[in-house]
Fold each of these.
Amino acid sequence: MTDKRIIIAIDGYSSSGKSTMARRLASATGYRYIDSGAMYRAVTLYALDHGLIGADGNPDTAAVVAALPDIHIDFVVQPDGSQHTMLNGEDVETEIRRLRVSNAVSPVSAIPEVRHALVAMQQSLGEGRGIVMDGRDIGTVVFPDAELKIFVDASAETRAQRRFKEMLDKGAQVSYEDVLANVVHRDHIDSTRAESPLRRADDAIALDNSDMSLEEQDAWLMQRFKEACGD
């Protein structure tokens, strides 16, 4: 495999499996994995825990923006090789995956100042290249010059079923209908927000992974990686 170090941007809809793809590709290539969605979830968790989101689900924009200097996010690799999100020194990996965060993350992510702050942080993480980052605007805003861009999609029902199973496996008490409603709602907000809306970059390779196994997906990604590296 070439020694060339590139940036790999994987964008896509909620629960499309892009984080799993990114983690597995990073492991296979020896690259660093950066979960940009976890960063937005961490900000959302902070806002929820500090009463910055109203009962209607809408954030107090001014209060969230004012709190940004007090929000510090990092990632710590665990003994099993997994990566946990740290919020102000606390491991919040489990908490940020709960439905209460999922239901609030899109409105928080749509706040321009939040996006600007996290994009700057993400860009600093990619200065040394050799990273795989997934999210909503990695190939369009964060790293528009990334050497490899993938845009992932699957039907809302397929994505909801994946998310539902993942949450049940973690012991969450949720219904499929609630998860599907959340997926559809997030699709709408992510695609229509004024600041960095979710869209496929012109030079991104589209992947519908609805009917792909993890092994088939891994093989497809590795081939695209080799092509991007000139192998």
Note: The radius of gyration is 17 Å.
Amino acid sequence: MGCIVYESSNGIARLTLNQPDKLNAMSYDMWLALADSIERAEADPAIRVMSLIGEGTKAFCAGADISQFQVKRNDPASVKAYEEAVSAAFNALLNANKPSIALIRGICFGGGLALALCCDIRLSDSTARFRIPAARLGLGYAHANIETMVSKIGLNAASDLLLSARIANAQEGLRLGLINQIFTEDFAKQAEDYLSEIATNAPLTLRAIKNSLRELSKPEARRDLASAHALVQACFDSADYQEGQAAFAAKRKPQFQGR
């Protein structure tokens, strides 16, 4: 039924969507495990950044594992439980205090694209393909997912992809804002270098930035600016701030401790 493989080293938590025989489609258990894995990374002070990747090179994620729907979504109670598991995974990514990076190769469809859009940054190779096929399947696409999509890529691009249900390649994904960069050479190495660069940055600053980005995604009336200001001030009050200044003056790499 697939699984989420959790590995960590050098400040990076690596979460792998692992069901390659089904193009890493998300089973019910995988939705649950993904939320748990994100919580695990959030609780580990050694982790500075999370990456999300699909097993193999054919797919990041083809969406939900539809083959389970006859069993896992066949009555009101099971439908509710399934939707709660999916929402928990999405919300865990959206509300995480640590940065999340989606590393996309091959197919990134439906719920897989929704997962990627919940991450802060999306990087791909040239094989990436993007699609929201809901209109071809006759299913209702969740308002929360559309809201996230519009907030990340804008109303016009979201309207195009949702209403046409067409496939966009990597270059168009870059143009539409679905991804931030395309790595065309050694994807694994370039992605690791990018993650490592984030992992060496100041954790308190990363958290303050993440909080401000999250608040800016909300309607203005609902933004908690006090929390944003408090986290910024905590950066200036920290030992890491002193370390950053000392490292800059000495022309060396800073060694941040998150305090």
Note: The longest strand covers residues 3-9.
Amino acid sequence: MKPFTTVVTVVFSLIAVVHILRLFFHWQVTVHGVIVPIWISIPGFLITGVLAIMLRREAKK
């Protein structure tokens, strides 16, 4: 696997892990004074997780 592909796969995986941790531990995120709802982490986890898996599979071909 190329180095850039490895780095991006790791970044996507870490973001997915942070989203799932936010769901379990109910961490609050505030952006410009507005609290981001917890449910936003569900699609965040799914999107970044799927991207990491797809990128990993593509790189192995």
Note: The first helix runs from residue 3 to 25.
Amino acid sequence: MNKIIVAIDGYSSCGKSTIAKQLAQYAGYTYVDTGAMYRAVALAVMRGLVQLPSLAGLDQIAVGFRNNHVTLNGEDVEAEIRTLEVGNMASRVSPIAEVRHFLVAQQQQMGRNKGIVMDGRDIGTVVFPDAELKLFLTASPEVRARRRYDELVAKGENPVYEDVLRDVNDRDYRDTHRAESPLKQAEDAIVVDNSNLTREEQMQHIYRLFDRCAERLKTAARKD
């Protein structure tokens, strides 16, 4: 059976990356975390490698993956890009058209042979509008803030829940109101609200969606 492209979009702290990784493993596909790519650019800005607002230096950085960790100019920066500060900067650089064009071109190249699971904000609408399976993940802001809060605590940080909730709402607004490739549900995307689902429940649901899509395409190919 020919491989497909799975596009996963949705709000912050919905577990997109975890879900995409597990689905890629289940399907035997390649996983690409596009959010990590924007975080890497944000880190480059914070390090002074890319200048704002001119974006001088953008074409001189290299964002890639090694062993499922994102790299910046060959350096493994997986841990550094997961901080709240880098996340906030990423939500500010990601709306910039030049940054998006720079990374979207790389993302489309990664999917040229299909067999890929990619998550982000505009995968099903901009990067791969013809993806065979599109999922749109959502959960209430309060649930997502609690998840993010727990993640930060587990990393040894001391967040304030109200600050995390405010950050979640602010990021939602920026993501959905930016001029360039705003976050929105693709018309043919399947919505998965995981507010009240356990991790196992949501993964079983998503596995079924993938299997049904794969079977439907297999049946269509036989008819052709």
Note: The helical segments are 16-27, 34-46, 84-93, 97-110, 123-127, 141-154, 161-177, 199-223.
